Amino acid sequence: MKLLLVEDNSELAHWTVNLLRLANFAVDCVPNGECADTMLTTQHYDVVVLDLRLPRMDGKEVLARLRRRGDMVPVIMLTAHGSTDDKVDCFNAGADDYVVKPFDVRELVARIKALIRRQSGGMSSCLTCGDLQYISDTREFFHNDERLALRRREHTVLETLMLRQGKTVSKSVLMESVFSLDDEPSADAIDIYIHRLRKHLARSSAQIMTLRGLGYILRAKHF
């Protein structure tokens, strides 16, 4: 899953990005409202974490423009004081949630997960494909009650396929999910991650199938 963090405090932004990546999120980060507005017109994100007070365009204006374009991506606002006025401003601007600084990243991750579940229409806390299980609350995969030890990008690819289970997912969608602005996008790398995932799933009844020219699909084997 891919997030956009908009935060002008470089130290806080660096710390938050690193911790979110440890939680298996792909993260883009920009330092001001104008950059955020541009990014939100060209990129797809699962959640936006947006500071309320930003240089060159404040968070309320970024959010207002986003909603005027009809984009309903979930937005968590970061507020400095947590006053009633701040909270009212956040929700009036169209925010879905808010977190008060300084924050514990575990709370931020929990709120991001809750928004993703809500956006997915109350997605079940446990998704299955054959004997492969995905626990949405922890974003972990299990096979025969054993947790799959996946690298971050392998996890993102499998998560993207699981959330679109039974549907063809193009390589470009996988690339967009996996790579942030700091990365060099590589179609060949997606093939490598798929190859590694197939090894992880070798004893599972879940399989990743290649549809040439179209992409990949996760489905249960039929015996």
UniProtKB/TrEMBL annotation:
Which residue ranges does the record assign to the OmpR/PhoB-type domain? 124-220
Alphabetical GO CC annotations of the entry are: cytosol; protein-DNA complex
Question: In the record, what terms sit under GO molecular function?
Answer: phosphorelay response regulator activity; transcription cis-regulatory region binding
Family annotation (Pfam families): Response_reg, Trans_reg_C
Signal sequence segment = none
- Provide this UniProt record's keywords sorted from A to Z: DNA-binding, Phosphoprotein, Transcription, Transcription regulation, Two-component regulatory system
Among InterPro entries, the record links this protein to:
CheY-like_superfamily (IPR011006), OmpR/PhoB-type_DNA-bd (IPR001867), Sig_transdc_resp-reg_receiver (IPR001789), WalR-like (IPR039420), WH-like_DNA-bd_sf (IPR036388)
List residues annotated as DNA-binding.
Answer: 124-220
All residue ranges annotated as the Response regulatory domain in the record:
2-116
Instruction: Give the protein name, as stated in the record.
Output: Two component transcriptional regulator, winged helix family
Which GO biological process categories is it annotated with? regulation of DNA-templated transcription
Question: 4-aspartylphosphate is carried by which residues?
Answer: 51
